[in-house]
Amino acid sequence: RTPTGRTRVRQTKMGGRYNNKKRKGGGGDDRILKRDFKKGKRDNVWDPKKSRVPDAKGEYKPYCKENEKFEEYYKGQKIVPEDEWDAFMESLRTPLPTSFRINGTGKFALDVRDQIENKLFAKVNEGDQSIDEEGNVVEPPRAVRWYPDRLAWQFNYSRQQLRRLPFLESIHDFVKRANEYGSITRQETVSMIPAFFLNITPDHRVLDMCAAPGSKTFQLLEMLHGSLGEEKEKLPTGFVIANDVDLKRCNLLTHQTKRANSPGLLVTNHEAQHFPDIVSRGGRTFQFDAILCDVPCSGDGTMRKAPDIWPRWSVGNGNGLHPLQLKIAVRAAQLLKIGGRLVYSTCTFNPIEDEAVVAALLKQSEGSLKLLDMSDQLPKLVRSPGIHTWEVHTKAGKANSFEEAQEVAKVHPTMFPDPSYAKLPLERCMRILPHQDDTGGFFIAVFEKVAEMPASLNPAPKKLKGPITIKTDLNVVKDAVKVEFTLVNTHELRAEREAIAANGGAPLEPEAELLLTEVRGGGTRNRQGGGSQFGGLDPILPVSDEKVIHSIRDTYGIDLAKLPLDKNAVTRTADNTRPKRIYALTDGLREYLAADHREQLKVIAAGLKVFERQEHKDATASEGACDYRLVQDGLHVMLPFVNRQIIHPTIDELRLILQRRSLQLPGAEDPEKPDRAKFMDDATKAEVNAAVSGSCVFVPRISAADASALPAGCSPEEIAIACWKGKSSVNLLVSKVETDHLLEKLGMEVNKNGPKGGGMDVN
Questions:
Q1: Do the Cβ atoms of 13 and 296 come closer than 8 Å?
Q2: Nearest-angstrom CA–CA distance, 647 and 628
Q3: pLDDT, mean of residues 432-438
Q4: Nearest-CA neighbor of 283 among 518, 517, 514?
Q5: Which of 302, 397, 288, 269 is nearest to 335 (CA)?
Q6: DSSP state, residue 570
Q7: Active centre residues (catalytic)
Q8: What is the pLDDT of residue 48?
Q9: Which residues pair with 485 in a beta bridge?
Q10: What is the 8-class DSSP label of residue 534?
Q11: Under 8 Å CB-to-CB from 175, ≥6 apart: which residues?
Q12: pLDDT at 376
């Protein structure tokens, strides 16, 4: 609550649908009803009557999956053919299948698919296992028919089947573990669709406006990197912004997307309808090539996995969200570059949130947007065309006009179909119905921007903060002097004058290259020289100390022409001469952050962590020893650029250090501890002795005899691990979760209940 007693309401997406959350001691309550969006006084206490109460056995009563108003409303909308209505309703009452997609692209992803399909899923068809104890046929997992290369799968097993049939439990355990490892992503099938319509390339600037929980963002990052093909010594120049209005969900978003290990990721915390324009001091603009606009919605397309929607559904849910959805869509269109693509999507069947928003957006854009026909894309995807007319209902029933409806409810003119909409190609919209392919419900519309949006839609100037001064501009026009007065922030005016002075007094022009040279964030707007308006967040600083960069360059043999850490390395440590962690950015992301000289972006996370400070405890370490170790999270991005400190153990030695987490150095064996693991191969011992103390990388040496030990198509670089060479041993610097994953890849058994404990001790 604010000091005035008003309630702040924030949009957020939970479990594939959107709710609203009110700040309440750091928590929040699920909201989808119209009244939840009103500002006003409300008791800041939990009402126990709203909680479900378990019975004596601790079990919850199932939700009633009946709602007459729901059926009446959607029968009137005619989004489902009459002869399919019963199948539609029956599908909504059944649980949603579990679905996942295999992460990555190219040969690696195909090999993972083949292993899962041939070793794990094939067990379902073995012998009599296809029949459960109750005589029901157990269907094997099936590939999602429209997803390219069979890289997405779904299955639907009851809890009883999972408990009673071990081979099904093994599939369920695999999905849980592989999702944690990052080999797969659990994601609802329909939510996988939008990313395919954006046509992302490595140089694209991509914005995911309402990104949490992050599964779609993960897809976008994969596409940014995957389009590079097999070019190992090359990173994308573009980036993906994952934005969400809820700070807690931004932290979840950061956790979910870090598995993508991308230096092109930026996580921000803004209201989508107010996402800022970024313009450099010299006037360079940063519009986006692709924008995903998966807006907050009433979420009735998710009833199969969120049955609590059944009793709470009402026409007011969608009516209340329509204005916000349109604002977000308009803002997305403004941020899009000409020729760029915008995908608008919801997880609701409701035309008020779907076609009504699309039609209003097309009308307000005055020809700036073109609704694309995507019927030739993903040809095996079963979809229904959009509709041109729909009904508007309020709590009083069907409303025939805006004038009639506003007498009994708060409605908006854009909710109502207009006669001119008959000329719009709304049939190009796509609606996914659950009974068509055993999925959830979804809606998608794809736009291309062909001209700038009307100036009348531009957002109003924001109220100035901090010290304000009057800026005077004198211009000579046809022998007359034109004087303009503008109110500006004093610190920004001073910075602009300094930039002009540094440019020899000449007016600033769009920069050829933008570099991060100053601290951004980590303070208040009123700090000397400007500052972030978002206090409490860690700053972003360039790693400007040449000693740090050159130490990393020389130790690991990195060519800065190929990997420009001198330009693209940042830290969030206030003292950037001794950064605790170093993050790598893509060229495009570095320029985008450098252009934000007004510090309008509220940055939660940026780039990929590639180095961490690890000072040498060994007094005998050389004076020029590098205090920065490679971290496992960023190792596979960094490895193609690393030419020193690489050790090639045998496959048996790699297994050994993964199991024991430490190997004694050659010549440092302790006779009192004969059971300690040690290196066995002479060639490995020579490489270990040649490496300097500190961080090193183990990339297994695979002989012809060992080739079968690796998964099909898996290269030695894909199972590389970060280690630390100390005084007497080499220690593993890999989390227990990742260690288990690597051991599984190498054919070793791990605890099926998942990783327990584990650490990263350094000697």
A1: yes
A2: 18
A3: 96
A4: 514
A5: 288
A6: E
A7: 347
A8: 57
A9: 472
A10: S
A11: 98, 100, 184, 186
A12: 95
- Chain centre distance of CA 175: 20
User: Which residue type does 244 have?
Assistant: D
Question: What CA–CA distance (Å, rounded) separates 173 from 162?
Answer: 10
Does residue 173 contact residue 420 with C-beta atoms inside 8 Å?
A: no
Residue 631 tokens read as 């971290």
Contact 317, 265 (CB under 8 A): no
pTM for the model stands at 0.87
Among all chains, which residue has been given the structure tokens 């794809």?
A: 446
Which helix H or strand E contains 153, and what residues bound it? Answer: strand 152-155
Distance of CA 365 to the CA centre of its chain: 28
Tokens of 2: 């604010």
The mean pLDDT value for 265-275 works out to 96
DSSP annotation of 101: E
* Residue indicated by tokens 């190992």: 232
* Contact (Cβ atoms closer than 8 angstroms) between residue 301 and residue 348: yes
Q: Give the integer Cα–Cα distance in Å for 273 and 318.
A: 18
Q: What is the pLDDT of residue 18?
A: 41
- The rounded distance, in Å, linking the Cα atoms of 28 and 8 is 11
Which alpha helices (H) appear in 122-234, and where do they start and end? 159-164, 166-181, 215-226
CA angle (601 as vertex; 600, 606 as ends), nearest 5: 150
Residue 213, preceding peptide bond in cis (omega within 30° of 0): yes
pLDDT greater than 50 at residue 209: yes
Structure tokens at 76: 């009137």
How far apart are the C-alpha atoms of 678 and 687, rounded to whole Å? 14
Q: H or E segment at 358?
A: helix 355-365
Confidence bin at 36 (pLDDT 50/70/90): very low
Smallest CA-to-CA distance from 391 within 72, 79, 68, 77 is with 77
Q: Cβ atoms within 10 A of the Cβ of 522, count?
A: 19
Most distant CA atoms of the chain, gap in Å: 95
3-state secondary structure of 89: helix
Environment class of 393 (CB within 10 Å of its CB; exposed 0-12, middle 13-18, buried 19+): buried
* Tokens (6 digits) for 568: 């693209």
Ranges of beta strands (E only) in 515-554 are 541-542
Q: Which two tokens stand for residue 34?
A: 């119209």
